[in-house]
Amino acid sequence: xxxxxxxxxAPYTTFGLGGKARYFVECxxxxxxxxxxxxxxxxxxxxxxxxxxxxxxxxxxxxPGLILRLTIGGIELRDxxxxxVRAGAGVDWxxxxxxxxxxxxxxxxxxxxxxxxxxxxxxxxxGAYGQEIAESLVSVECLECAFGYRDSRxxxxxxxxxxxxxxxxxxxxxQKPRIRYPELQRAVAGLGGLDTxxxxxxxxxVRQAVLALRRSKSMVLDPADPNTRSAGxxxxxxxxxxxxxxxLAQRWKEIPSFPADGGVKVPAAxxxxxxGFPKGYRSGAxxxxxxxxxxxxxxxxxxxxxxxxLAEEVRAGVEKQFGIRLAYEPEVVRSET
Length: 337
Ligand SMILES: Cc1cc2nc3c(=O)[nH]c(=O)nc-3n(C[C@H](O)[C@H](O)[C@H](O)COP(=O)(O)OP(=O)(O)OC[C@H]3O[C@@H](n4cnc5c(N)ncnc54)[C@H](O)[C@@H]3O)c2cc1C
Prior knowledge:
Blueprint: E1 4-8, E2 20-27, H1 30-42, E3 47-50, E4 56-58, E5 63-70, E6 75-78, E7 84-88, H2 93-100, E8 127-128, E9 131-132, E10 137-144, H3 153-156, E11 162-170, H4 182-190, H5 199-216, E12 239-240, H6 242-251, E13 258-260, E14 263-265, H7 268-274, E15 282-283, E16 287-289, E17 297-299, H8 304-322, E18 331-333
Parallel strand pairs: 2-5, 3-5, 4-18
Antiparallel strand pairs: 1-2, 6-7, 7-11, 8-9, 10-11, 12-14, 13-14, 15-16, 16-17
The chain binds flavin-adenine dinucleotide.
């Protein structure tokens, strides 16, 4: 186990923000994860599992414990009527998608271009363009973090209690992808549509359309595009009760909405923009809203404090205007030591 000390965390996140980790270790195998967890437990250090760092905000004060960065590799493809793909938690997610799409295996093509690791995908059930990982997930191999320290985050809730080591997905073959999302349907039609192509070509075409759409919104990582110093969407779309939505729609007739489990989903982007925070909004110099996506908060060369101040400003503005408190999508990593 190669333990490093006082390691700057910013380069390990897509925001490019955060102070130093007191201890930092890259774990390329289950044994290394076990050894790292044992090291933290013996010293009563808080431990935090990091994948690609595309959905986390580390504070400027850093992290006082041990960061385990998962680098477990390996992709195994099992062909068959329902092909399966098994991948190590540290595999780059889009590399997995790139591996299955040319084979015509369908099920994850709409998730093309999402940053981060395979191990990070089940944590928040990543989704895009009407597809989500839960639909193809067969199994997740985990290690339970049974060790404890005072007031451990691992004890209080399932969140952070398991380390994902490996993920297995079941996909489909010899069938054209179903496209549920109107914006993607239009983009695919713009590329010639799926009617005259083979199923394998269709899967590739959908990936191409998704990547083009994502690029137009700065939703694929690109070092040349400053809008991608983000975590993608910073706020989740709120789901309101039917009564709460009816009340809102009386005051805001043009508010878009979608049916959702147990209520009505309202686009957080619409709320943000209509609360006075347009694309490109800047508060102070350090952080702003992406010029291409109203939900993406972007590091403009500032600090985590700048970013979190902006997040709170937007949240308070939306709450004042609509009475809805938005939830953060990325995890703000605070330590309870
Ligand atoms: C430009 C951009 C666009 C994005 N677009 C989308 C999108 O379209 N849809 C979407 O759903 N998300 C999107 N995201 C968010 C992000 O890419 C996903 O949530 C991704 O799955 C996070 O994976 P990660 O490996 O980077 O996780 P990290 O950011 O490293 O960690 C995120 C959380 O997962 C936990 N975690 C990570 N790996 C493991 C593991 N092996 N075991 C246990 N816990 C683990 C961490 O502790 C943390 O709580 C976007 C982000 C960016 C920057």
